[in-house]
Amino acid sequence: MVAPIKHFAAVIAASVLGFVVLLTWATPASAAAVGLTAGCTLTSATAQCNFPVLSASYNAEIHYVTVQCSTTSTTAYNLKEVEVAAIPPQASGDVDYEMAGNRASVAGVANVGAIVDIYVKANTTSAIDIDFSVVPTGTTTCTASLTATY
After folding, report:
1. Which of 30, 102, 38, 92 is nearest to 65 (CA)?
2. What is the dihedral of CA 36, 84, 95, 115, to 10 degrees?
3. I need a labelling partner for 105 at 20 to 30 A (CA). Which of 69, 79, 86, 113 fits?
4. What are the strands of the beta sheet with 33-43, ordered from one edge?
5. What is the H or E stretch that residue 125 is in?
6. Are the CB atoms for 79 and 132 separated by under 8 Å?
């Protein structure tokens, strides 16, 4: 009776060892975090903030996005729509993710921030598109920031 128990214990030990080795090979690399800020180019009633490639080798995930615009004008304006344009891992073209709309300016400044979960294909760029409801006169600047992991 002792021989079958030793055989059974050996089979379990070999199975556990094989599973541990398999898990060791299948463990993903730890995620790296990145934070980026981009100035935006204004053209009439829109602005675009272009970001560089988040990761050349891995798909990335954008977690948080902020946008702030300011103007020297006394004209009140709204950020009518703010979208993140990114290429998802399984796609070949940009998909726009609306993150906020209709944010009013106060004393010439309008801002928005949002928690998002946007997956971005490796070796592609992303952008933030801003639509204004009223085009501010004077000098207007916008800055966008994002945090992501890959």
Report:
1. 38
2. 90
3. 86
4. 95-104, 78-86, 126-132, 46-51, 33-43, 140-149, 60-71, 109-120
5. none
6. yes
Rounded Cα distance, 7 and 91, in Å: 52
pTM: 0.75
Residue 110 exposed, middle or buried by CB count within 10 Å (0-12, 13-18, 19+): buried
Domains of the chain: 33-149 (2.60.120)
